């Protein structure tokens, strides 16, 4: 009898314990998915911001998806080659365009159970950012987790003193002298691509989808400039790097939704496995490189420069980069650097195809500054002024990095408002670049000359043009892009003229970056 009752007592206690643990767990989840976000939301609302009504657990994601599908159906039923409009904000982000009309340029919306402060007002942005140093900003935790396989804890994601240390060590690698030494990698890869184009044109196939070609070449250039691999010996790394980007895009559609990753379990597992494979491959490259005496060629890429810098940092008794950190930086350079630059070139070719007068002007400038020869002297690229205006105008109309994210790491005072510690922020670059009140009536026209006299393109707010971000966390690779853009465009314009193919359908959309949904087919002629 006594035995039975102690067994019963034990069972009852175990059940009570399990129930208690379950309660604590459920309570913890409710607290972090419901109570905390709601409290953050209330504090933001107290400032007078409003926004679309969210639903648990998707926030505004369902509405965003619905609006995207509606927009896509509209554009597929309208004539594919109707006017190519540069008025892309309402096409690429129909939900933001609609919410802005109802709630203004600063509003609150929800990704899953995470409230975000959406900002498309440059004056608000300026006031919020003016007193805060680069190191004091955070990146939303919700993105850190999702993008871990791509960027790890590299420069784009790292925060605080660690960001200061890394930026300090990495910056010299991007000096103009070092970047000019990388120009030969760019010429080599671009020439290979263009030889392929010439062969196709000469064999009677003048139509080429340049988007895919340029992204692939830019990937090769970034792999060479980041960690010195050539297409032949680094094919495996390159293929894996590209694969992970597509997989990750599919697996992060439910960002912010509790257990959102499990809604796409196959992609989530694949992204994790690919991330590990890439890390192992890069670790192998880094270990081999750091163990052997650097050859002249190995020294010139970004990894070589960081390894060399590591030695001097070591000798100054400061903390050098660990292999783990070097892996993350190599991945970050590759992912942050190749598609952005490739898309800047792709959108430029679209504009030049429909504005042949600008093709002509740039060709004349190239002849004058660089000459007719095949050899490009990188020291002369800075003198390609008109090409610089064209690049800025394309980055304004089609910014490849269409938005920035931040998370406040302490309360921020903006006039009489308080943006509370922990607030996630979404800064809409596309919206600001297409805002008529900032740029004037011709905001959606392609007019490179607006950058002739003014580096801000005549925008009536200095924070209204920010293709490379701003403040201390401005893009570290912008000078590299400048060189690569000018080299590739110079080579293309020197060899070919081109027009838009009737098969082109204008549908800019977001796949992490802003890209043409159906590629960019152009019709080429050799010069
Ligand atoms: C057209 C080309 C490019 C565009 C439009 C672009 C855009 C941007 C933007 C908007 C940011 C700010 C992100 C933020 O504040 O959250 C950024 C940061 C960054 N970019 Fe770029 N980028 C380009 C090319 C490159 C290249 C070629 C590289 C590398 C080799 C690169 C590496 C980075 C890194 C590492 C950061 C983080 C900097 C930091 O937080 O300290 N980018 N880029």
From TrEMBL:
Cofactor names: heme
Listed GO MF terms: heme binding; iron ion binding; monooxygenase activity; oxidoreductase activity, acting on paired donors, with incorporation or reduction of molecular oxygen
Signal peptide (UniProt feature, chain positions): none
Localization in the cell: Membrane
Binding residue positions for heme: 475
Membrane recorded as keyword: yes
Membrane topology term: Single-pass membrane protein
Alphabetical keyword list: Heme, Iron, Membrane, Metal-binding, Monooxygenase, Oxidoreductase, Transmembrane, Transmembrane helix
One Gene Ontology CC term in the entry: membrane
Pfam family, one: p450
Transmembrane segments: 12-36
Family: Belongs to the cytochrome P450 family.
Cross-referenced PANTHER family: CYTOCHROME P450 FAMILY MEMBER, CYTOCHROME P450, FAMILY 715, SUBFAMILY A, POLYPEPTIDE 1
The protein, known as: Cytochrome P450 CYP4/CYP19/CYP26 subfamily
The species this protein was found in: Handroanthus impetiginosus
